[in-house]
Protein 1
Amino acid sequence: MQRIRYFCLFTVVMALMASEVFGVVRVARRYNVIEVFGSSAQAWGEYSEVGPVSIVDGLGRPVKVKASVLFDPSFSFGVTYGQLRNDHWIGDLGFRYLRINHNLDFAGTNVRFHQYDIDITVNYLFLRLPTSAWSPYIGASVNGGLTVQSPEGYDTNSSLTFGLSANFGLDLKLWTNRKDQSFVTLSSVNTWNAVGSGNRPRFLQIGAGLKYWFRP
C-alpha cells in the first residue's frame, strides 16, 4: 500500500509539473491533443538483476547478462493528453503499460512482469503542423511508475521505479476540418528508454498512434 501511495503522489506531482510547463510559454495558437498508441518493445543493455532475482555464475558471483538473452520482444500501449503551444512545442501527460517478457526459470513457477508508467513529455515539432501536411519531432520524457512482479499462485510484488527517455517520430496529417479548428494525424511513436532506476528494464519502443488535435 505504501508503494501505491508513493505512485499516486508521484502522479499528482507530475500533473502539477505538466500544468506549469503548459503555462510557461505565451503563444499565438494553441491546440489540445489526445493520442492513443501501441508499440513493439525490444530490451537493450546488460542486467545483473530482473525483479527480485539476482543473476549469478556457477560460483555464486554476480554477473551481467545481455538483454537479448534475458528478454523476448514485447509490446506497450497507452494514451496521452497534451497541448501544442507556439505551433512547435507540445507537452503531454500520459499513461503507458509495458509487458516485460523474460526468459528466466523461477523453479517452475509462472512469473509475469509488468510496467505501469506515468509519463511527462516535451516534444519539439520541426514544422508548423497546423499548416503543414507533416512534421518530424524529437523530445524527452520523464517516466515513473510501478514495476510489478506477478507469480502465479503467490502475492504480487511491486517497486516504484523511474526513467528518462528520448522520443522521436513523425506526424502525418490525415484529415483537417474546413475551419482549421481540428485535425487528425497518423503518428510514428518511438521511444528509447535511456536511463532507469534500480533494475528497471530499458527498451527501444517502435510504434504508431492516432492523434486528434483540436482548438480549445
Note: The chain has one domain: 2-214.
Protein 2
Amino acid sequence: MTSVARTVAVLIGAALAACAWLSWAGANTALAIPFRTLWDPGHSVDAAPAWYTTVALTVWIAGALIAFGGIIGSRATVIVGALIGAATAVTWVLSNAASSSAAAVTVPNIKVGAYAAIALGLIALLMAALTRDTSVPTLR
C-alpha cells in the first residue's frame, strides 16, 4: 500500500469506529443495539445492554482492523476489517427489513450510523482492492 492509501485507511478506520456513536435507529446508537438483534430483530431488552454485547463492539473492531491495516500496510487486514464492518451493518439492516416482528426497526427509521458503516466498509474494500503496490514484486 502506498503512504496515501495507508493514511486513508487509518482515517476510514477511525470514521468507521465513530459510526458506533452515530444514530442507528431513532435516537439509539450502536451502543444501545444488542448484538442478538443481528439475527433476532424483534428481540427487546429491558435494560441497556453492556457495551461488550452490542453491535458497537463489532463496529469498533472493524474500525480498529482497518486502521491497524493502514498503519502496518496490510491490505488483508484492511479487507477483513472492511468485511466485518460492512457485513455487520448490512446484516442488521436486512434482518430488520425482512422481519415481521412488531419490535423490529422499520427501514425508514434506520438512521445514518448504519448506512455510514456500510458505505465506509465498502469504500475500504474498494480502496484495498485498487491500491495494490505494484512496485514490490510478489509471488503469484
Note: The longest helix spans residues 75-98.
Protein 3
Amino acid sequence: MEKRKWLIVVAIIILLIAGYFLFFFNKDDNVASVTDDSKTENEISDNENTETVNKEPITFEITSPEEETFKPRQARMWKAELKNYVNDYGTMAECKWSFYLNENNEESLYQQQDGRAVLSTDGENSCAFTSTFIEKVGKLRAVIDLNVTDASGNVKENYHAERSYIVQ
C-alpha cells in the first residue's frame, strides 16, 4: 500500500514536469500563430476597404409594420433600418420618431418616441420599439430622423424616412 502511494506521488510529479515543459514549448507555437493571425486581419481589412468602394448606396426606410392598415390599440413593432452602412463598430445614433394623425382632415402631431441605436458595418442597423399607443382612427404618417453621432455626441450624419398608414 505504501509503495502504491509513492508511485502515485511520483506519477503526479512526472505529469507536472511534463506539463511544465509542454507549456513552454507550446508558448513558442502560440507566438507564431498570433503572427499568422495578424497577417490574416490585415488581409481582411484590405478586403473590407476594397468592398467599401463597391458598396450599394445607403438606404434608410421604415420596414415595420409591413401592412398599410391596422386597428387602434393593436400592438405594433415600429422599425426603421439603415442598410449598407459602413463605419466603425460602436457608432451611436439617436432615433427620433414622430407620428402624425390626420383626423377630420387636419394632421397633427400625435406622439413622439426617442431611442438610441448602436451602428456597425456588420450588424443590423435599426431603430425599433413595440407599442400600442395608436388609439384613434385616421391616416397616420410615421416619420423618423436618425442622427449618427460621434463619441462626443456631435451629429455626423442625418437620415430621414417616412411612411403612411391607415388606422381603422
Note: The domain at 59-167 is CATH 2.60.40.10 (Immunoglobulin-like).
